[in-house]
Design brief:
Elements lengths: L1 H28 L3 H25 L4 H26 L5 H8 L1 H16 L7 E3 L3 H13 L8 H14 L3 E3 L10 H15 L10 H23 L4
Helix pairs in contact: 1-2, 1-3, 2-3, 2-6, 2-8, 2-9, 3-4, 3-5, 3-6, 5-7, 6-7
């Protein structure tokens, strides 16, 4: 029984990642882009935790890897694309729908290519921008597109699509003792904390009050654990 529970813990984090991606899509459909972005932020937190938890518990599995890819397509492919569609591309009708759909398509191709090349690829770089980073960046740009020239969002949209399927080498930062995608997550955290404490607490889901302390505690635990174990030889 304990073994089954241990095996299920990382997959639970992955499934929660997918669930928050779905909720983000719902908030985008309602025109609530701040909450949609916050839910993608929480998905990024969970995505950066599930693999590490699996390694900590020594319960890595092929099922977990497949679930992770499926969750990433929803949370970092479909959800950011829906934000971009409802906030900008919807003005172009069915053409805007077709354009928005490109993002999860490119992201899915990038994930499939990564999965089949994961064994032989270098641990020091990614080939193309990971869908998590691409989706996070598109989410940020969509959230603030009203404060920028309108042309920036569509240009960034196509650039990110290209970068995901490109063969450009992107440093993986795996040697840095922090969860991956730390820069984007840190930007999200800063923004989330700002809006939560800007007398707008009632507008945001209670998930954020649990997710941020949980993630900060997880990072702190990682740093303490690495410090105690000492540098790798």
């Amino acid at each position: 029984m304990i073994h089954i529970i241990r095996n299920s813990i990382p997959n639970l984090f992955t499934l929660l990642n997918l669930f928050f991606g779905f909720l983000s899509v719902m908030y985008s459909a309602l025109g609530d882009y701040k909450n949609a972005a916050i839910l993608i932020l929480i998905g990024m937190m969970l995505d950066s935790m599930d693999g590490r938890i699996a390694r900590m518990l020594n319960v890595e599995s092929d099922l977990g890897k497949e679930l992770d890819s499926l969750a990433d397509i929803v949370t970092f492919g479909v959800a950011p694309a829906m934000m971009a569609y409802y906030s900008y591309f919807s003005d172009f009708g069915i053409f805007g729908m077709a354009i928005s759909g490109l993002f999860p398509l490119f992201g899915a191709y990038r994930l499939a290519r990564f999965n089949i090349n994961a064994v032989k690829s270098s641990q020091h770089y990614f080939t193309g921008v990971p869908i998590t980073a691409g989706g996070g960046l598109l989410t940020l740009l969509t959230l603030f597109h009203g404060k920028m020239p309108a042309i920036i969002l569509p240009i960034a949209f196509f650039v990110i699509c290209y970068l995901m399927v490109s063969t450009i080498k992107i440093p993986s930062l795996k040697d840095i003792p922090l969860p991956k995608y730390g820069i984007i997550i840190t930007l999200f955290l800063g923004y989330a904390i700002y809006i939560v404490f800007k007398k707008e607490q009632h507008r945001f889901p209670y998930f954020i009050y649990v997710a941020i302390p949980l993630y900060v505690a997880f990072i702190s635990y990682q740093l303490v654990r690495i410090k105690r174990s000492g540098p790798k030889k």
